[in-house]
Amino acid sequence: IKNAIRILNDKDVVVSKKEQSLETVQSLCIAGLDLEFKPADIQALAAEGIASLENGYAEGVMESMDLFAELLGYSPPPRSLRISHCRITGVLHRSETGEATFGPMVVYSRVRNSLALVERQLNPRDPKDLTYIKETVAQTPDASGKDSRVFEYLAAAVLKSGRVSLPG
Length: 168
What we know:
This protein is α+β, with helices and mostly antiparallel strands.
């Protein structure tokens, strides 16, 4: 009976309980991860995006876009700039008056398997800007490789942002 009581009494082995246990396990798991990116990692991410685009693998293109968006702090566009068959991500700017502009942005058309970079900031309330974004998406992709240069632009932006550990 004494052994059974000692086994049931877990005070000598319990480190933490409930939420604190979850936080402990989570911090131990995260501590073991290498979350640093090196320039070669960013270049590899861009290469994967380019390969996915060239092979028509939409899920791979969007996954690469999402990873770059996370690294660059990009977000989805305001509702008026969204297009049903496109994945759009970019920088949302708010002025002191509350006026929003969106850009630069990356636009991926799943229907056309094309990727476009819009470097200027668009006003979601301006009809000319709404027309501009729709025309950008409607452009027929050409064989010049311009689409793949978008991933090169994103990689350069990440490297320039300082979020990557440089050797040395």
